[in-house]
Amino acid sequence: MITNEFYPLFYTFNFYVFALLALMSSLFFVTRKSPVSAALWLVSTMFALAVLYVMLDAEFIGIMQILVYAGAIMVVFLFVVMLLNLGQPSEFSDIRKNGPRLVAGFLGILLTAELLTLAWSPLDARLLVTTVPPSVATAGAGGIIGPVAGPLFTEYLLAFELTSVLLLVAIIGAVVLAKKRS
Amino acid sequence: MTFTLAVPAQLMQALLPDLVLMGGAMVLMLMSAWGPESASRQRAVGLGSIGVLLVTLGFVIWYATAGMTSTAGIIAVDSFRWTADVILLIAAICTIGLSIEFNARESIHYAESHVLVLFATSGMMVLTAARDLMIVFLGIEIMSLAVYVLVGMNRRSERSAEGALKYFLLGAFATGFLLYGIALIYGATGTTNLLTIGQRIHDFHLTQNAMLLIGIALLLIGFGFKVAVVPFHMWAPDVYEGAPTPITAFMASAVKAAAFAAFFRVWTESFGQMHYAWILPIWWLAAVTMIFGNAVGLAQRNVKRLLAYSSVVHSGYLLVAVAAGTLLGSSAFLFYLFAYTLATFGSFAVVCAVSEPGDKKLGISDYEGLWSVRPGLAVAMAACMLALLGFPVFGGVGFFGKWYVLQAAVTSPYQLVPLAVLLVLTSVVSAGYYLNVVRVMFMMPRPEGATDPAPLGGMTKLVLVFSVVTMLILGVFPGPLANWTRNSRPTPPPATAADSAYMVRPIVAATP
Fold first, then answer.
1. What is the ipTM of this complex?
2. Is pLDDT at B330 greater than 50 in this prediction?
3. Which of B138, B146, B152 comes nearest A162 by C-beta?
4. What CATH class has A6-131?
């Protein structure tokens, strides 16, 4: 039977798994020769970081990490790689060897086991896992986005507005450099 | 009038000059996009930009003379900001003056080039005002992004593209250092406000905190890249050579001045009490910059590269003023920046005038016998070279700039006398290349078959005459400028209970 003491164990285990995953992925990201595998390793880094954010009770930042970095920015990267025709299918084989497959399978089994244990555990353990995180508890009416949104539109309003100027400059610059030569 | 920065409307008023410039830049951006590219549109937008900059300059001078102040907050309203802004705006006006005719000559019909100069200048003005690391970062990025594009503006030149790419990649790398430093400093102190950082370092005895020290070191590297001090100067010569000449002048003066102003404010307001930790690194950076920059400068045969190394060396001289860390250091710093900006624009105006379409004729040998064909240009160039060297009377205000920096170094409590001696010695070395340009122009015969430089355009002439004449007049009567910079220093507002309640976020409240 599962008792409460497993919860901290799971937490530590998850932390080490995803911290190592983030470190390894970023190492592979900078050492791969093929741009496509490098980009995919970066996606993996972003996902591992997102998990770490969620574990720090910053769910909103975690979701943003996946949506913005792993989603939008990496898609743009891959588009550029595709349009420039840089990817070589023969180099695209980081996960097609037996070693990496074993590691991935082992990790997958461990995480599934963890999930199933929690799902079948008695009520009190599940309650512990699903306790309201401090960020939500202290956020009040704003929910988990409140602690981000509040300062952004009060204390850091100027920084927020300056960011829009920064993006405008970036757009003008990109348009000017991409225009046809006169 | 004292602005309460916690009130958004008053924050906007405190930023009025910056907002005027940004608004003007956006209107001109629409104007430049509203029709086909043409030489006349490029010129019209350029003249409009000069107008916007002059209006902004008017606002800055109004605010400076009205003695506006503010409560503590994310931006500073003090004389240091206004003086630095005046230097930046003069540099931007001169840049656009040179750009209008340079672009016409090189048939760069992008009117956006002037708009980007305006945006870069607004980023710089934000930078001089910033009293929060977040705003410092955004100011640096607005400035840098615009300048990355400006460097690559000449689409026909491979060197321009190479310079832009190099600057962009290394600049992005340096930004990483800067951000990481800011993150660690936030981690150590729990705030990004410059004054609160200083306060927390004092209150919580953080002077030995490893995280804070690493943060400061990373911040120093980030700023070192932006102001191009040795060993973070690697990008400067290639980028300065590749960029369109007016933009090179802009980078050598305004970009450097703005980054230095933020550097100075961060260092005095946040880390003033930690001088024992940073004085040695800055000491060595300044020393290495002065020695290495001058030694390599001696070997240059291209005028733009020579001026690039000269600008690296001048970063070293300015670092001496930063290291002094006193009020005299602050006034010497601004005085030097003003003098250096004038001399830079004078010399780059001559480079623009002597070079030919396609950015050719930039070798020092192309200046041989310039005196015999264009005596005016030769005299102006000689005055600027002497000013950069720090020669009295003929070099105008350059001499007093160096004098004040030396004075600040010698009277500093941090034992900078060896650095002052080094400054004088390396200045003597720099005579090797500055005077070489003068010698080539006046004592060498004009080579057979060398074509005369094309006649000067009106704007270039105006910029040249303005900078050289101002420089020479201030060289004889430096009093007003010295008084003005003496009263300009970063002035922290007196802290009130309401301010600190607003500024200090409850970061320690969560601990049981």
1. 0.90
2. yes
3. B138
4. mainly alpha
